[in-house]
């Protein structure tokens, strides 16, 4: 099954032309590529890509683990057992041992040396931030596992959601989706664009557009990490503006635009409201501001028969958009479908331009 | 050169026993018998034989081919291998020659050791059953319409090939033993001590190889070489028994790691206070299923419960099931996508951009059978789904195997089929300390080392007793 191969991904990174070097004296880790070096500061470099330049012992890690566990259970976090799973992932990323076997060794071989990617005391700081400030784990470790990808993320970029993985399946199911020009509007970390880029054949291409400068930088890192520079082109700008040269030529447009109604922003889960960028979340008064703009706009960029797939705030929004496509834009779209996510919420609207 | 000679001569000698020697044999005889091999210097053998080696070799292989076409058609018809004096492997065992250490020079001791090993290997392979199965398969394979169902045909042919290979291997060992005995006698008559020593060292090698085969034969079931899932479920009794379930699970995790397998937690339902309600781990590596299947059943613990403030003695139970991960794709149960319902395991709330969670557990339900699989330990939903899907696939394969009764019935039981009365092992921490297997009566007085994963002795004991008992 594909499953094994996906697990192996972890071991094969970094991928293709991507190299990274570390110059600690300047406090920078650099992502070097043949054409243009991208650099990000040490604090935002993904943990799993940092060199194993520190070390500690199995018993120290066991002590850390016990402390971290008790912090999780004494916090007011709604799901402590899940926090413990995150703790395992933090330790996986901070060491080179995907099985965290050093935790068992703590008792039998207390002075077993474990190489680390951060100083042990830094781990305490990171976990405190996770539990007490409710900082998302993905920002702490600097990556998010999404589909079979490990995407670099950092503050200022939306952490891709599990629901959104399905968008890629929709594209996969379309006949001929491996060729032609595609656009991922509001690409954020580049998640959808990279996943589509990986499926494309020789003559396929994805334009990954975002208004946020940080998103553009992070998307570029991810495109490069997967060796997709000739398949995915990241463009800076608002929605269709950077696509003037390809108007009427696109095979498909996908987007997960900001869709949360403005009034819901203050009440969001702490990890989201306090830590993720507003620009990626706020969908205007009714949450439909960007979505309606995208529906309208995709009619001009898509070629005839072109595909669209949008993620929405759920149920009513999906129904409303699907309804408008039959009324306001009647005769311009066909095969409009509302599709539920795995939680049963009608999350997506897909279809084709006439 | 010497071993070529030994093979050639013994083959020649055996061929002389054939009641109707044909032209090939006569030519073989003439080539091999012209220079009499009598000198005791191996190099002079070599010098004298080299020019003829090519021709002789060609003749021998032609002769072999002829034999295999003419005489080796059916498995069960297979007559027992005999040497020139009409002695079989069983006859050698019956002589009860003393088995000495490997470095002893008495050839009889080596022959006896080899013969005993061959018998044990056959027993463990369930030789008689295997021959019957082989006959059934040969019949099925020879049917003209077999390829009407290519999936079935593929499975049958593969199994046929596999069993054929196993049978030939053992027969090969038997033949080699008998050939070497013949050769030894010949060498002694000819006073050729070089060949005699050479034969003894060959016997020692065969003896060593067979020792390995004895172990391998314990794991010669159809699915034994595959990886597997191990599932543990806590019995009634609340926290104490959930704690026991997690102790058992840890035992398997460290057993797997000790054996060099890759162990991953796929699914885990933690208890409210401690332990687990149930959990599934994946044990990746060769023969994981072959070993782990010995653990299927109910495991019982007796101890003073740390969860009982009155410090009373408690008895708890955990059920263990093991599912093979079939490597052979064509024999797997075919799942229709439309028969599946995929759900987020712990959903709730608005989801999407509203929620940041690393929890992407999914549950997959196979609607026609009601069988489900859950995975929550992967870091992406996509991978949780893939992982749950492979558990589901294996559960359905297992169901299918049970349906076709292809596998020993007790190894196909899923967790829900295991009755709590079926206790296989008892772990007593108080008032005395002992772990005892109810099936074999094998016992160990240090439960802590067992709980740390030292269970190979139990497994091997069970496998050998059950296989050897079965065949008798
Ligand atoms: C909900 S996030 C989606 C990110 C990514 N596609 C994903 O699914 O993880 C929405 C993205 O739209 C971008 N965005 C917001 N307004 C935009 C605009 N006017 N033009 C282009 N992108 C915009 C945000 O910066 C953000 O990256």
UniProtKB/TrEMBL annotation, chain A:
Output the Gene3D superfamilies linked to this UniProt entry. Vaccinia Virus protein VP39
Cite the entry's keywords alphabetically.
Methyltransferase, S-adenosyl-L-methionine, Transferase
Q: Name one GO biological process term.
A: methylation
Pfam families, alphabetized: MTS
Transferase in keyword set: yes
Which residue numbers delimit the Methyltransferase small domain? 171-260
- Kindly list the GO molecular function terms attached to this UniProt entry: nucleic acid binding; protein methyltransferase activity; S-adenosylmethionine-dependent methyltransferase activity
Protein name per its UniProtKB record? Release factor glutamine methyltransferase
**Taxonomic placement:** Eukaryota, Viridiplantae, Streptophyta, Embryophyta, Tracheophyta
TrEMBL record, chain B:
Entries under Pfam families matching the protein: PCRF, RF-1
Q: Does the keyword Ion transport apply?
A: no
Q: Quick one: a GO cellular component term?
A: cytoplasm
GO molecular-function terms, A-Z: translation release factor activity, codon specific
Keyword list (alphabetical) reads: Protein biosynthesis
Q: Does the keyword Protein biosynthesis apply?
A: yes
Question: Ranges for the Peptide chain release factor domain?
Answer: 185-295
Q: Which family does it belong to?
A: Belongs to the prokaryotic/mitochondrial release factor family.
Q: Please give the name of this protein.
A: Peptide chain release factor 2
Species the sequence originates in: Zostera marina
């Amino acid at each position: 099954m594909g499953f094994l191969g996906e697990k192996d991904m972890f071991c094969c990174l970094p991928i293709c032309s991507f190299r990274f070097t570390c110059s600690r004296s300047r406090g920078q880790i650099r992502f070097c590529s043949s054409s243009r070096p991208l650099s990000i500061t040490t604090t935002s470099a993904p943990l799993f890509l940092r060199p194993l330049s520190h070390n500690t012992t199995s018993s120290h890690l066991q002590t850390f683990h016990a402390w971290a566990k008790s912090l999780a259970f004494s916090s007011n976090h709604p799901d402590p057992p899940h926090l413990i799973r995150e703790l395992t992932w933090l330790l996986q990323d901070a060491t080179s041992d995907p099985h965290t076997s050093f935790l068992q060794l703590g008792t039998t071989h207390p002075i077993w040396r474990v190489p680390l990617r951060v100083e042990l005391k830094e781990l305490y700081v990171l976990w405190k931030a996770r539990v007490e400030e409710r900082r998302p784990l993905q920002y702490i470790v600097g990556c998010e596992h999404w589909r079979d990808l490990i995407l670099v993320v950092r503050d200022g970029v939306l952490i891709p959601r599990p629901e959104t993985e399905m968008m890629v399946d929709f594209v996969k199911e379309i006949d001929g989706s491996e060729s032609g020009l595609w656009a991922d509007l509001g690409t954020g970390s580049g998640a959808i664009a990279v996943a589509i880029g990986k499926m494309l054949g020789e003559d396929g291409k994805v334009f990954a557009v975002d208004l946020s400068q940080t998103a553009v930088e992070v998307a570029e890192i991810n495109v490069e990490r997967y060796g997709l520079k000739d398949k995915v082109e990241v463009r800076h700008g608002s929605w269709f503006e950077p696509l003037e040269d390809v108007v009427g030529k696109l095979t498909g447009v996908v987007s997960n635009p900001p869709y949360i109604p403005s009034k819901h922003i203050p009440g969001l889960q702490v990890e989201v409201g306090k830590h993720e960028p507003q620009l990626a979340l706020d969908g205007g008064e009714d949450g439909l501001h960007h979505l309606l703009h995208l529906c309208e706009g995709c009619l001009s960029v898509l070629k005839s028969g072109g595909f669209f797939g949008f993620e929405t705030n759920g149920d009513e929004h999906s129904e409303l958009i699907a309804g408008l496509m039959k009324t306001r834009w009647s005769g311009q779209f066909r095969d409009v479908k509302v599709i539920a996510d795995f939680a049963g919420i009608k999350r997506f609207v897909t279809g084709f331009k006439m | 050169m010497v071993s070529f000679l030994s093979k050639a001569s013994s083959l020649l000698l055996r061929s002389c026993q054939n009641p109707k020697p044909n032209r090939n044999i006569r030519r073989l005889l003439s080539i091999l018998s012209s220079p009499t091999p009598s000198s005791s210097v191996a190099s002079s053998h070599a010098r004298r034989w080299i020019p003829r080696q090519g021709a002789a070799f060609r003749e021998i292989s032609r002769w072999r081919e002829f034999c295999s076409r003419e005489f080796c058609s059916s498995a069960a018809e297979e007559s027992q291998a005999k040497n020139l004096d009409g002695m079989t492997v069983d006859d050698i065992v019956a002589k009860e020659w003393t088995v000495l250490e490997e470095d002893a020079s008495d050839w009889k001791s080596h022959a006896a050791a080899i013969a005993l090993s061959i018998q044990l290997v056959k027993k463990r392979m369930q030789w008689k059953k295997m021959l019957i199965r082989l006959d059934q398969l040969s019949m099925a394979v020879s049917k003209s319409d077999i390829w009407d169902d290519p999936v079935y045909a593929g499975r049958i042919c593969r199994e046929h090939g596999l069993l054929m290979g196993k049978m030939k291997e053992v027969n090969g060992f038997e033949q080699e033993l008998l050939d070497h005995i013949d050769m030894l006698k010949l060498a002694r008559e000819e006073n050729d001590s070089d060949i005699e020593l050479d034969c003894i060292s060959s016997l020692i090698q065969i003896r060593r190889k067979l020792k390995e085969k004895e172990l391998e034969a314990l794991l010669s079931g159809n699915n034994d070489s595959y990886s597997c899932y191990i599932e543990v479920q806590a019995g009634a009794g609340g926290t104490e028994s959930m704690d026991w379930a997690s102790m058992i699970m840890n035992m398997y995790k460290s057993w797997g790691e000790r054996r060099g397998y890759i162990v991953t937690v796929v699914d885990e339902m933690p208890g409210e206070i401690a332990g687990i309600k149930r959990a599934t781990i994946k044990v990746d590596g060769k023969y994981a299923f072959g070993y782990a299947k010995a653990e299927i059943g109910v495991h019982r613990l007796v101890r003073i419960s740390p969860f009982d403030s009155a410090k009373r003695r408690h008895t708890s139970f955990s059920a263990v099931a093991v599912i093979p991960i079939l490597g052979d794709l064509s024999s797997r149960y075919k799942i229709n996508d439309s028969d599946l319902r995929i759900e987020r395991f712990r959903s709730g709330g608005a989801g999407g951009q509203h929620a940041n969670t690393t929890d992407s557990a999914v549950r997959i339900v196979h609607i026609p059978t009601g069988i489900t699989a859950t995975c929550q330990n992967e870091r992406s939903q996509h991978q949780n789904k893939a992982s749950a899907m492979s558990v589901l696939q294996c559960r359905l394969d297992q169901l299918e195997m049970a349906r076709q009764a292809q596998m020993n019935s007790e190894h196909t039981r899923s967790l829900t089929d295991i009755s709590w009365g079926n206790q296989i092992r008892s772990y007593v921490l108080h008032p005395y300390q002992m772990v005892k297997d109810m099936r074999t009566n094998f016992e160990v007085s240090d439960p802590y080392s067992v709980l740390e994963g030292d269970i190979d002795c139990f497994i091997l004991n069970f496998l050998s007793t059950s296989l050897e008992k079965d065949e008798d």
